[in-house]
Amino acid sequence: MQHYDYLIIGGGMASLSAAQGIRRRDRQGNLAIFSSERYPVYNRPPLSKKLWTEDRVEDIWMRPDTRNLHVDEHLTTTVSTINARDKTVTDERGYTYGYTKLLLATGGTPKELPFRDVPILYFRTLDDYFLLRRLTENKTQFLVIGGGFIGSEIAAALSMNHKEVRMIYPEPHLVDRFFPEDLKQVIDAKYLENDVKLVANDTIETLKCEGDLIAATTQNGKKFRVEAVIAGIGIRPNQDLAQKAGLGVNDGITVNEYLQTSDPDIYAAGDVASFSYPYPDQRSRMEHEDNALAQGRAAGENMAGANKVYTHLPFFYSDMFSLGYEAIGNLDYRFDIFANWKKVGEEGVLYYLHNQKVVGILNWNVWDGIPKARQIIEKQKTYQDPGELKGTIQNE
After folding, report:
1. What b/e string do you get for 80-96 counting C-beta neighbours within 10 Å, with b at 16 or more?
2. What pLDDT does residue 27 have?
3. What pLDDT does 65 receive?
4. Which residues on adjacent β-strands are paired with residue 6?
5. pLDDT of residue 63
6. Which helix (H) or strand (E) holds 19?
7. Span 346-375, mean pLDDT?
8. What is the dihedral of CA 11, 16, 18, 20, to 10 degrees?
9. How many angstroms separate the CA atoms of 287 and 293, rounded?
10. What residues contact residue 21 under an 8 Å CB cut-off, 6+ apart?
11. Which of 205, 242, 290, 363 has the lowest CB atom count within 10 Å?
12. Furthest C-alpha separation in the chain
């Protein structure tokens, strides 16, 4: 039986970052990544962003890093069981491997709709990107289900590639739960300006194949036909493996401040990890690149003996046509929001306050402000007058 000092399950960015963290402290221990994908580690965010405008597929590969780190890569390999008592894992082919420290960076699986007889692309992986690219070669009419991050980015990408796009989502606006009303109006207007048809406050009632077309009926009675359907309605954390091993789970694999699960020799990081998030105090999962990289690195260092508390406050970003932003912390339109606009919807910084303390910051078309924003949130100063925040990040 092959034994690894460090065994990582999952082939995403958190896994690679964990390997880097391990190698910062231990250059000798043997290390392996087990991934169910057929590709080595790649950068996931460009799949719905820059690969549609400027980047090439060749730019997303991270394989040189895994080679330099002396990692054994087990691709197209799904780990089916963990035996925490014996400190072994077994893959779907029946092969067993031992470990000293184990990391679960298993990510998530897209939520699906109850239309099994209709080809729906649940966009998440590189293969999904390749499939959508092939679809754009001979199809022009697309339906995007979901108005969150993935749905809005894919709709923008398709529109910029001269496709007819219709979006349907149950909320009143695109990316509805993050932004104040005036900014949501700006976002909606940008999509309409680019000829994306928006169907808000509605859901799909039926989807049926009719020859080469897919016929859709909504709950509110709207009917239309398209050539392809893409869905981005969220993910479910891949926590079954951990749960079967007896580890604590609750909308993700629960970890302590050192990113250890209920078994101190098993860690979790990335989209699947449920960790303590202090602003405001709660448990949370973060499905964003910066969290995957920082949390993976911290988990790797701790697996190799660092014993450091994970305190990083991750940021996230998105691009929608000419609109772009970087954000950090907890963005919820129900919080008190102090908006410091130069011009509404074009450039400004929004401060999200809970109990008079800043818990989230949105830099809208304002760049390089994340370090300062992180400092403001971590300071947890009480602002009886939010106007004091004016100009703290962008120049007036």
Report:
1. eebebeebbbebeeeee
2. 94
3. 65
4. 31, 101
5. 66
6. helix 13-25
7. 95
8. 160
9. 11
10. 296, 297, 298, 299, 300, 301, 302, 303, 304, 306
11. 205
12. 64
Whole-angstrom distance, CA of residue 1 vs CA of residue 35:
19
Q: 């602003």: which residue's tokens? A: 279
The C-alpha atoms of residue 274 and residue 248 are separated, in whole angstroms, by 10
The reported pLDDT for the residue numbered 277 is 85
Amino acid residing at 119:
P
Which residue's structure tokens are 């780990």? 79
Q: Within 13 A of 263's CA, how many CA atoms are on the CB side?
A: 23
**Structure confidence by residue, pLDDT tens digits, 206-224:** 999 999 999 999 999 999 9
- 10: enclosing H helix or E strand: none
Using alpha carbons only, what angle is made at residue 395 by residues 352 and 193, rounded to the nearest 5 degrees? Answer: 70
pLDDT classification of 279: cutoffs 50, 70, 90: confident
DSSP state of 117: T
- Percentage of the chain exceeding pLDDT 90: 91
| Contact partners, residue 116, CB within 8 Å, separation at least 6 | none
Buried b or exposed e, range 290-321, using 16+ CB within 10 angstroms:
bbbbbbbbbbbbbbbebeeebeebbbbbbbbb
Domains and CATH numbers, the chain: 2-109+235-303 (3.50.50.60), 112-231 (3.50.50.60), 322-389 (3.30.390.30)
Q: Find out whether 268 and 255 touch, Cβ atoms under 8 Å.
A: yes
pLDDT at 68: 80
Q: In what order do the strands lie in the sheet containing 315-320?
A: 315-320, 323-329, 357-364, 347-354, 336-343
